[in-house]
């Protein structure tokens, strides 16, 4: 007879997982807020969801493997954490591609930085999932610094190149 998820992951463990996801969403929200203020294609909600989903998917893979192992169905599930991370990154890349818009008659690309920030939110979610909270917070700060301060440097370079 198949076990329930509470037998694989006790309620306390599930609540801890939800806190991790919530923490990842909060950090993603910091980056999303910056994108929102900058009027970019993907903002607060998108970045929060990407970070939270990344954190959750990392753990979900672990729980699925454990669930089937307890059922004696180890042969059906092959565990590889790097494949899980790769799948998360692939999903984020798909979202990122959707934020990149090419103008019809111009050879310019828009949304690339936002796509990169979505990818970074995914890595923040993964770091949160594996309890690298200092790293996750630092990555959030680094991302905000890049998005806010280097934007000014880019404008300065563009102004200099026009002269």
Overview of the molecule:
By secondary structure, the chain is an all-alpha fold. It has one domain (5-162). It is 77% helix and 2% strand. It contains 6 helices and 2 strands; from the N terminus they run H-H-H-H-E-E-H-H. It has helices spanning 5-8, 11-37, 44-70, 81-99, 112-129, 133-162, and strands spanning 101-102, 109-110. Helix 2 (11-37) packs parallel to helix 6 and helix 3 (44-70) packs parallel to helix 5 (112-129).
Q: Helix and strand layout, with pairings?
A:
Blueprint: H1 5-8, H2 11-37, H3 44-70, H4 81-99, E1 101-102, E2 109-110, H5 112-129, H6 133-162
Antiparallel strand pairs: 1-2
Helix pairs in contact: 2-3, 2-5, 2-6, 3-4, 3-5, 4-5, 5-6
Quick overview of this protein structure:
This protein is mainly α and 163 residues long. The protein has helices at residues 5-8, 11-37, 44-70, 81-99, 112-129, 133-162, and strands at residues 101-102, 109-110.
**Percent helix range:** over 70%
The tally of domains stands at 1
Low-pLDDT runs: none
- Report the structural category: mainly alpha
**Number of H- or I-type helical stretches:** 6
**Structural shape:** elongated
Give the spatial strand order of the biggest sheet: 1-2
Order of helices and strands: HHHHEEHH
- Beta-strand proportion: under 5%
Radius of gyration: 19 Å
Tell me the major beta sheet.
2 strands, antiparallel
């Amino acid at each position: 007879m198949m076990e329930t998820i509470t037998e694989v992951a006790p309620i306390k463990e599930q609540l801890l997982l939800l806190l991790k996801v919530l923490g990842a969403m909060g950090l993603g929200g910091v980056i999303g807020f910056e994108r929102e203020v900058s009027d970019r294609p993907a903002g607060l909600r998108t970045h929060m969801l990407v970070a939270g989903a990344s954190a959750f998917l990392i753990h979900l893979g672990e729980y699925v493997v454990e669930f089937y192992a307890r059922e004696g169905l180890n042969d059906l599930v092959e565990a590889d954490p790097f494949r899980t991370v790769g799948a998360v990154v692939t999903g984020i890349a798909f979202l990122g591609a959707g934020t990149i818009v090419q103008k019809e008659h111009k050879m310019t690309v828009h949304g690339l930085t936002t796509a990169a920030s979505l990818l970074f939110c995914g890595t923040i979610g993964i770091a949160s999932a594996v309890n690298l909270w200092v790293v996750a917070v630092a990555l959030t700060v680094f991302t905000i610094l890049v998005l806010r301060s280097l934007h000014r440097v880019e404008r300065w370079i563009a102004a200099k190149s026009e002269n």
